[in-house]
Design brief:
Blueprint: H1 6-24, H2 29-52, H3 77-95, H4 97-109, H5 113-128, H6 133-150, H7 156-170, H8 178-191, H9 202-217, H10 219-223, H11 234-237, E1 244-249, H12 260-265, E2 272-278, E3 281-283, E4 297-301, H13 304-314, E5 316-319, H14 325-328, E6 337-342, H15 358-362, E7 364-371, E8 374-376, E9 390-395, H16 397-405, E10 409-411, H17 425-440, H18 446-459, H19 468-471, H20 474-493, H21 495-504, H22 512-527, H23 532-550, H24 554-565, H25 576-582, H26 589-614
Antiparallel strand pairs: 1-4, 1-5, 2-3, 2-4, 6-9, 6-10, 7-8, 7-9
Helix pairs in contact: 1-2, 1-20, 2-20, 3-8, 3-17, 3-18, 3-20, 4-5, 4-6, 5-6, 5-7, 5-9, 6-7, 6-25, 7-9, 7-25, 8-23, 8-24, 9-26, 17-18, 20-23, 21-23, 22-23, 22-24, 22-26, 23-24, 24-26
Length: 618
């Protein structure tokens, strides 16, 4: 039995704190990861000081090369490969090819929910094998929402399968998800074996995807709730009837002659101005500089109690009518009312609408906020925003186009865009195919091929140089750089060996394939609570140690861990794509357990048996 040393205790202490932070997210996960890296770097000099003072027998040494190993995550091949893959995904996205494919598919789905579901999972799965699955969901979410709208289907019936199918697809190739790339790197570093090849586990991934798709089309379809009823009117969907109204300015109103900003915006009332109707003209943001005139009609977002107070003191009369989506889109011929989803890595996460100056910055008004199944229609300004929050936004066509181009948001409806580089479709697809071919033929390491492809995207003008930095999800990059040293510390300290011995003890009572299943389900449960990349870093060193002790092939055990870490179905926080659809689908937390729990169990069995079938355990 491995002796419990101060080195192991120090690593376990960091792991326990990190798990608590990953699970509760008092700060973003990438910040926690950097905190882990810094904590590990501080342990060694602190222990040297304690040892020199006679308070510790010997210094704690977690890294053979200090501080190089602790900082190695920033120069790691996995980190750089993932960075390059973000750029490649963005280059493909900018051509509009995926949107064109979606438009083609929508022509035959009609109002059949089954065909819509089949088109959704059939499109996102293969795409996710070659571009980042988070990007695939972000691109396809507006298309799927529109499919549901045109077919009078609840978007709730399609969006959760969209997220799940993207996870299946991510397991088709090495570059399908950052988890695969990280797992390959950790495996190679610990065992000294070659990294995974591009299509090494594609057969297993195809089986997992096929079983998953059949589940979503049958049992999953029945289990997926219809949280949002099929509706065309967004004001009805967000239940805004009691919160939208129109008021007219009386001749004797004290507001006449005042600027809108001072008279109605900078007040203590919980009121948002949506539009101003003056004669035959309708005006949207910015309304602040306009001078109020008698007969002006303002459309407001407020609650009834606030409206009574406003009418009492401001010289306004109520216009007795229900405000509909059509009336909110009178300002011009385009789309003025849309759902906007807060994207992963958004600068607005943790900010409120007020602190981010949302109205002023984007010339847009938020009417309501949906967080999962919860609708918030009053006192929203101070509420900290989260990934997946869905905002009901009214703005001019130009402002909505700016929101659609902003990396902080995903506009959940298809809007007409003219900036796709359709002429570059063959070039961008060719570059990705070239990267895959170079890596698959082992002509170049995957990191070199991916970086070459990223450079080619700029050289061929599929991407502009200024778009490179926006293409990268920097929170994922910093997460990888922060957690990679934790795996190194676990291995060097003996913590991984100790945990492996505890797991190996089950080998006295269970067959080898059952021990493999234990690793899958432990990783899956862990991943549903913390980051998938953190799960891989924690579990792969343990899996390799356990496999070696049992006389099994470490590769098979690593595959089980990798597949489990990339298929977190049971919570909205388990995977970024689950958070993407949480608000737009109006889901409850329990929906993920209801639909994803049986799927997790089914794929656990399929993956475990599949690993044993395709790859020898010994």
């Amino acid at each position: 039995m491995v002796a419990i040393t101060p080195d192991i205790l120090a690593v376990f202490a960091v792991i326990l704190v990190a798990l608590a932070f990953f699970a509760t997210e008092p700060v973003p996960v990438d910040v926690t990861a950097i905190g882990v890296m810094v904590s590990l770097m501080l342990i060694q000099p602190a222990s040297e000081a304690l040892a020199s003072a006679g308070m510790l027998g010997a210094p704690i040494v977690l890294f053979e090369s200090y501080p190089g190993d602790a900082l190695s995550g920033f120069a790691n091949t996995a980190t750089l490969t993932v960075l390059a893959m973000f750029i490649l995904s963005e280059g493909v996205q900018r051509t509009g090819i995926i949107q064109l494919l979606g438009a083609k598919i929508s022509t035959f789905t009609g109002d059949s929910e089954l065909r819509q579901l089949g088109a959704t999972v059939g499109l996102v799965g293969p795409i996710s094998g070659f571009i980042n699955n988070t990007a695939a969901v972000a691109i396809l979410l507006p298309m799927v929402t529109d499919l549901a709208d045109r077919g009078r289907t609840s978007p709730s019936k399609l969006l959760l399968p969209l997220s799940y199918a993207s996870m299946f697809g991510g397991m088709l190739t090495l570059i399908g998800t950052s988890t695969n790339i990280l797992a390959s790197d950790v495996y190679s570093r610990i065992t000294g074996e070659a990294p995974f090849t591009m299509f090494e586990f594609t057969a297993l991934g195809a089986v997992v995807m096929a079983v998953g798709v059949v589940y979503l089309m049958t049992v999953g379809r029945r289990l997926t709730p219809e949280r949002i009823e099929p509706r065309r009117d967004l004001t009805e969907e967000f239940e805004m009837a009691e919160y939208l109204t129109e008021v007219v300015v009386r001749e004797d109103s004290p507001l006449v002659g005042q600027q809108v900003q001072r008279a109605l915006v900078e007040t203590e009332f919980d009121v948002d101005l949506l539009q101003l109707i003056r004669g035959e003209s309708v005006f949207l943001e910015p309304l602040g500089p306009k001078e109020i005139q008698p007969g002006d009609v303002f459309t407001l977002r407020t609650d009834r109690n606030t409206l009574v107070e406003l009418l009492d003191v401001e010289g306004l009369d109520l216009v007795p009518a229900t405000v509909t989506e059509d009336e909110l889109e009178l300002a011009d011929r385009g789309q003025n009312l849309v759902e906007v989803v807060v994207a992963p890595g958004s600068a607005l996460v943790g900010e409120s609408l007020a602190s981010a100056s949302f109205r002023q910055r984007y010339d847009a008004t938020v009417l309501a906020l949906r967080r999962g199944g919860e609708l918030i229609r009053r006192r929203m300004d101070k509420l900290p925003l989260r990934v997946g929050d869905t905002l009901l936004v009214q703005a001019t066509v130009e402002s909505i186009e700016r929101l659609d181009n902003n990396r902080n948001f995903i506009v959940a409806q298809e809007i007409e865009r003219h900036d796709y580089r359709e002429s570059k479709i063959p070039v961008a697809v060719g570059i990705v195919a070239g990267v895959v071919a170079l890596a698959a033929l082992d002509f170049l390491p995957i990191v070199v091929a991916a970086l070459l492809g990223a450079l080619a995207m700029v050289a061929t003008k599929c991407l502009r140089p200024t778009e490179l930095y926006d293409a990268v999800q920097w929170d994922v990059i910093f997460l990888l750089a922060g957690v990679i040293p934790l795996g190194i510390a676990m291995e060097n300290s003996g913590a991984a060996e100790l945990l492996a011995e505890l797991v190996v003890m089950t080998g006295d009572y269970l067959p080898l394939i059952a021990v493999l299943g234990v690793f899958y389900f432990v990783t899956a449960l862990l991943t549903n609570v913390i980051s998938n990349n953190a799960s891989v870093v924690l579990m792969i060193p343990v899996a390799i140690e356990a496999a070696t002790t049992l006389g099994a092939d470490p590769f098979s055990f690593v595959l089980a861990v990798m597949f489990a870490a990339s298929t977190a179905f049971m919570t909205p926080v388990g995977y970024q794509t689950n958070l993407f659809v949480y608000g737009p689908g109006g889901y409850k937390f329990t929906d993920y357990i209801r639909v994803g729990g049986p799927l997790q169990l089914l794929l656990g069995v399929v993956t475990t048996v599949g690993v044993a079938y395709f790859f020898p355990l010994t």
